[in-house]
Amino acid sequence: MVNLGKADASTYGTLYLGDASGAGSLTGSGTITFGGSTNNGVLNDSNAIGDAGILTIGSGITIRGKSGRVNNSNQTGEVVNLGSIIADTSGGTVTLGGAGTFTNSGSVSVLSGAILNFAGSWGSTSGSIAVNNGTLNLGGGVSTSALNLPAFTRTGGTVNLTGTLDNFGATLTLTPVTGDWNLINGLIRNGTIASTGGTLLIQSGTLDGVTVTGGVDLSSINGANVTVKNGMVLNSTINNIWNHVLRRRERVRQAAGDGNDPAGREHEQRRAERLERDRQRR
After folding, report:
1. Is the dihedral of CA 258, 261, 267, 273 positive or negative?
2. Are 182 and 199 in the same domain?
3. Distance of alpha carbon 22 from alpha carbon 52, whole angstroms
4. Are residues 154 and 141 part of one domain?
5. 1 and 123 in one domain?
6. What predicted TM-score, i.e. pTM, was given to this entire model?
7. How far apart are CA 4 and CA 260, in angstroms?
8. N vs C: which end of the chain shows fewer Cβ within 10 Å?
9. Which helix (H) or strand (E) segment is 103 a member of?
10. How far apart are CA 154 and CA 175, in angstroms?
11. Domain range spanning residue 223?
């Protein structure tokens, strides 16, 4: 077992793997335990390009503990996790990715009041993500397919979409398994948002060219708001669409005028009022 930093955060430690010749791998059947400092880290320190710059964390390796990061030192690097990464200590924060690319092909879990952040360019196409009474922040940039929702499990806890979700040609379906997700300063681009039991609770953010067939709500907090770009196809009800202000900040598609055009603003206000009247009649 390798301990990085003390539990009381009075010290921190960093495990650098790789060099200019390549990143190599971390294999075996051991455990790396993060102490209390967010400066703790397991870093791919290689600046090699291509396959040589990929750090592979083997299937027998477990990285767990309170606070730390698994990341690349360089934008050309990639970390591929085949093992288990577990944020399991209340009050701690573990961050995966930020520079380069982070790929989860093993398992990532957040438990017991801990926080786990995804950052930068990342994906979990062939891996699993589990939330068990912890907080998961989906930051950075990821596609819907790379979320691998069939392998996503949740028992309690919180899921926040704080980054950019590329939903092109896909459907983000929130289910009883995924539970409700919070959109907090996040962006969902293209595709469809649907529900079979979960809800996208919008606090703030942007919907860019999306179709909504269910499961979107702006009543979770007072003053919830969302910016709609490039139009929206609404085939469902958005709760409190008017009371909590669904704002559209795109250029009005007319031969003259833009989003600041008074006629355009009046048109958008009338449209929002019609949608609210239709909702009340249902």
Report:
1. positive
2. yes
3. 5
4. yes
5. yes
6. 0.86
7. 54
8. C
9. strand 93-104
10. 10
11. 167-282
Phi/psi at 209 (5° precision): 65, 40
| Element containing residue 267 per DSSP (H, E) | helix 262-281
Same domain, 91 and 153: yes
Report yes or no: 140 and 116 within 8 Å, Cβ to Cβ: no
Residue pair 209/189 in contact by the 8 Å Cβ criterion: yes
Do residue 15 and residue 39 come from a single domain? yes
3-state secondary structure of 141: strand
Integer Cα distance of 171 and 148 in angstroms: 12
Cα–Cα distance for residue pair 51/24, rounded to 1 Å:
10
Count the domains in the chain. 2
* CB proximity list for 80: less than 8 A, separation 6 or greater: 54, 55, 56, 57, 103, 105
Given a cut of 50, the residues of the chain with pLDDT beneath it are: 242-259, 282
Same domain, 142 and 247: no
Rounded to whole angstroms, how far apart are CA atoms 122 and 102? Answer: 5
Are the beta carbons of 61 and 85 closer than 8 angstroms?
Answer: no
* Structure token pair of residue 66: 């309170």
Contact 24, 45 (CB under 8 A): no
214 and 271 in one domain?
yes
Q: Exposed, middle or buried: residue 31 (CB in 10 Å: 0-12, 13-18, 19+)?
A: middle
- Beta 152-155 vs 128-132: how paired, if at all? parallel
256/248 Cα distance (integer angstroms): 18
C-alpha–C-alpha distance, residues 215 and 183, integer Å: 12
179/243 same-domain check: yes
- Residue 5 is predicted with a pLDDT of 98
Q: Where among 162, 190, 207 does a domain terminate?
A: 162
- Side chain identity at 172, as an amino acid letter? L
Query: How many residues are given for the chain?
Result: 282
Q: Of 136, 162, 188, at which residue does a domain stop? A: 162
